Amino acid sequence: MIIGVPKEIKNNENRVALTPAGTQEFVKQGHTVYIQSTAGEGSGFLDEEYIQSGAQILPDIESTYAKAEMIMKVKEPIEQEYSLIRENQLVFTYFHFASYEPLTHAMIKSKSVCLAYETVERPDRSLPLLIPMSEVAGRMSIQEGAKYLEKPLKGRGILLGGVPGVRPAKVLILGAGIVGTNAAKMAAGMGADVTIMDINLQRLRYLDDVMPANVNTFMSNEYNIREMIKVSDLIVGAVLIPGAKAPNLITRDMLKEMRPGTVLVDVAVDQGGCIETCKPTTHEDPTYIIDDVVHYCVANMPGAVPYTSTLALTNATLPYAMQLANKGWVKACQDNRDLALGLNIIKGDVVYEAVAEAFDLQHVPFEKYLGEK
């Protein structure tokens, strides 16, 4: 198969979908790999390293899309890329369709095959290609939150871990999945007073057993959230419904109950955000203020630490990408149900139910394309 890796063009996105090591694995299997020039530089990988691994370097994004049967990316295609995607071309990347209708319609129009990292799902409901970036984003949410709590950045002016004789900051984490758990670990390690909320009592019991003493668990409901936001300094939104838009757990009216300088970090912004006043921001201009509350809503948080993020992501995606390259997407998805659940749009049909529901579109089961009943 011919694999193309374009340079990411989303604002301050420095990750790349394939490392030189991954390139070498594809070439060993007899595949052809095209890398757009400088695609890996932001993550610390030079064109020369890709060439040594067997890749061919192309000068621009147009030629990379034109030659490839499978496009491997990190972030969803943006408007400049829509017209480059061809009918029947396989695009393997994060899409987050339910949060952005224009992208959904553009991919329907392209008649390409869109296989989304974020909905590849194991039988235990875990999301193997979302986990590594959720780990990065969860840890970064505390790192960034701690920074924006500083007074020059319009925060409350509180040190996350406090000092002897001074109480630490209170951190509230909404959601006890991968993002929330990693955020809690980081916040606890920095000495904060941490509360993690979820609707899954079994998950809360597990975290209560394994987390340090400065992490408390609390059942998530509107009443409890309203009580906690009054006393929290940093609030992290870490809620995910696979493939669907995130629910709004913090509404506009709740901001008035928070103390001035409270910091909100919405890690769910890729899926529409779990904070009503959330709107996607960039690393270039990461925050805005509403009702004296600082909002940090960067849609590609792991892009700020591209070396770590690229290696973590490609460790997870490469085995699946290899199956797609070796077998073609139809056979690979027939053989691996986890991969089949990553199918979102096929040749103009929306085959992922949550995406169809988000925009009131017709849902066509993906089994139609895999020859299954």
From TrEMBL:
GO CC annotation: plasma membrane
One GO biological process term: L-alanine catabolic process
Keyword terms: NAD, Nucleotide-binding, Oxidoreductase
Keyword Amino-acid biosynthesis in record: no
Record-listed substrate binding positions: R15, K75
EC number: 1.4.1.1
Reactions the enzyme catalyzes: L-alanine + NAD(+) + H2O = pyruvate + NH4(+) + NADH + H(+)
Ranges where the Alanine dehydrogenase/pyridine nucleotide transhydrogenase N-terminal domain occurs: 4-137
Gene Ontology terms for molecular function: alanine dehydrogenase activity; nucleotide binding
Ranges for domain Alanine dehydrogenase/pyridine nucleotide transhydrogenase NAD(H)-binding: 149-297
Binding of NAD(+), residues: S134, D198, R203, S220, V239, L240, V267, A268, V269, D270, V298, A299, N300, M301
Active site residues of this protein: H96, D270
InterPro entries xref list: Ala_DH (IPR008141), Ala_DH/PNT_CS2 (IPR008143), AlaDH/PNT_N (IPR007886), AlaDH/PNT_NAD(H)-bd (IPR007698), NAD(P)-bd_dom_sf (IPR036291)
Superkingdom of source: Bacteria
SUPFAM superfamilies: Formate/glycerate dehydrogenase catalytic domain-like, NAD(P)-binding Rossmann-fold domains
Keyword Cytoplasm attributed: no
Family per record: Belongs to the AlaDH/PNT family.
Name used for this protein in its record: Alanine dehydrogenase
